Amino acid sequence: QVQLVESGGGLVQAGGSLRVSCAASGGVNSIVAMGWFRQAPGKEREFVGRITWRAGATWYSDSAKGRFDIYRDSAKNTVHLQMNSLMPEDTAVYYCSADMTGGRSYDYWGQGTQVTVFS
Asked: Region 4-33: what's the mean pLDDT?
């Protein structure tokens, strides 16, 4: 079992930056990768990016590439999503998730944190 707790959401003006974090606990040694997703009102959940737990390799969606950065603090079992040049269309609930098998299916999810970007 892995527990994931997000933090750091909030309200930010367009063009600004915000960092959301995800603290993992429990069976963290079995985590293969961590993913970030988001869901805007009335829309389907969308992949944002992913980082492997040990090597720190990252992948990003086209909408996140060049603006968002995922990195980890291994000592604190925490993964961060640094979001820059935010736009109103980035407004969503952001979720972190844990991939325990490497098959890009996510087994555990956090509760989500709201990010609202106003113009």
From this structure: 97
